[in-house]
Amino acid sequence: MKSNNCLTTMILVVIKKPLYINIIKTIIVIMTTTISVREDTKLRLNDYKMGKMNYDALLNYFMDAISIEDVAEEHIKEHYARLKTFEGISKEEFKKRLGSSS
C-alpha cells in the first residue's frame, strides 16, 4: 500500500515540474479596439493598403504624414469662421431651452 502512495507522489512531481517552468514565460497582450467607419470610407482605406499592411499600420502612416498642428490649424480656422456668423441668445432664452430639454 505504501509503495503505491510513493509511486503516485513521484508521478505528481514529474507532472507538476513542467507546469512551474511554463508559468515563468512572459505573456504579451495587444489590446485592440473597433473604429466605426462608413462602408465607402473602408473601401477607400482598402485602396491605400499595400501588401500585408494592416489598418493600424495604414492609419499610423497617414498620421505620420500629416502633423497634428496642421489638423489643429484647420479646426481653429473652422471655429473662427463659425464665430463670424454666431448669433447668441439671451440668458432667459438659454434657461428656457435648457429647461425644455430635460
What do you see in this structure?
With 102 residues, this protein is mostly helical. The chain has one domain (2-100). It is 69% helix and 0% strand. It is built from 5 helices and no strands. The longest helix has 22 residues, at 2-23. Residues 1-20 have low confidence and may be disordered.
Keywords:
single chain, 102 residues, 5 helices, 0% strand, mainly alpha, disordered N terminus, 69% helix
| SSE run | HHHHH
Largest sheet: none
For the CA atoms, what is the radius of gyration?
31 Å
Helix amount: 55-70%
The figure for the number of domains is 1
Low-confidence sequence ranges: 1-20
Helices and strands: which structural class?
Answer: mainly alpha
Number of extended strands: 0
Please give the count of helices: 5
Q: N-to-C terminal Cα separation, in Å?
A: 79 Å
pLDDT average, as an integer? 77
Shape: elongated
What proportion strand?
A: under 5%
What's the helix and strand layout?
Blueprint: H1 2-23, H2 39-48, H3 55-65, H4 68-84, H5 91-100
Kindly summarize this structure in a few lines.
This protein has 102 residues and is an all-alpha fold.
